[in-house]
Amino acid sequence: MNREFKREEHVYTSDAFDEIIKDTIRFFNGTPVIKLPPPVKFHGTGVYAIYFIGKGNLYADLALKNRIEFSMPIYVGKAVPRGWRQARNETHSSNKTFELNGRLNEHTRSIEQADNLIIEDFYCRFMILEDAASSLISTVEAALIRHYKPIWNSQIDGFGNHDPGKGRYNQAKSEWDVLHPGRPWAEKCSGIAPDINRVEEKAAVYFTKQKSK
Q1: Residue 86: predicted pLDDT
Q2: Close Cβ partners of 152 (under 8 Å, ≥ 6 residues apart)
Q3: Which residues pair with 52 in a beta bridge?
Q4: Which CATH number fits domain 29-159: 3.90.226.10, 3.20.20.70, 3.30.559.30, 3.40.1440.10?
Q5: In the chain, fewer beta carbons within 10 Å around the N or the C end?
């Protein structure tokens, strides 16, 4: 049946949905900040933020804010259940899987392998989303990234990358690996890497914009 197209008939809006997202972010920002990596193994999926407090570094301005109050994450990420993209299954509190804990430990290894970072300068906070709330994981992550615009999400790409595996090392190093060399698998990448001066310039532009806000 042919009928006149009206875009407004396809647009979904909900004040209730907006309030749910705001509530999850309020809860997230109230969770305890702990050193990276987490001191104990815990189960669950959800979202997390990583904070830097080091001195004498490219991120000095960011670190200064976080030494006063953990208010400016350097990276925001998510940990979803296995098979999430294929089945979109909810995680249940009775199922003990460790994706969130594993992701934070993976980031710990990346930082420890970098030649110019030390893990003692990094902290994290996280929120576990399980049962029906697990459907919000990607939405909450996106909302946090939009709000904070962390430099390792919005300006310097590659921190969350995985080892591409054998036969795929013809790709270039990421900007993050150029700025923070040391991950063994990244050193195998043979593509034309970004120029470090250009990457440092992007970081400087990011902090200039932050100061102007």
Answers
A1: 47
A2: 50, 74, 75, 159, 160, 176
A3: 122
A4: 3.40.1440.10
A5: N
8: which DSSP letter?
Answer: G
pLDDT in tens, 145-195: 999 999 999 999 999 999 988 888 999 999 999 999 999 999 999 999 999
Show the 3-state SS of 102-160.
Answer: HHHHHHHHHHHHCCCCCHHHEEEEEEECCEHHHHHHHHHHHHHHHHHCCHHHHCCCCCC
Helices and strands, number each (H, E), in the chain: 9, 4
156, 178 contact by CB (below 8 A): no
Instruction: Classify residue 35 by its DSSP letter.
Output: E
- For the cut 60, the answer to whether the pLDDT of residue 39 exceeds it is yes
- Calculate Rg over the CA atoms of the chain: 19
**Angle between helix 137-148 and 15-29 (nearest 10):** 70
Structural domain boundaries of the chain? 29-159
Tokens of 192: 């034309």
pLDDT tens, position by position, 85-108: 545 555 555 578 899 999 999 999
To the nearest 10 degrees (0 to 180), the angle between helices 60-68 and 196-212 is 40
Residue closest to 119 by CA, chosen among 132, 131, 106: 106
- DSSP-derived letter for residue 173 is P
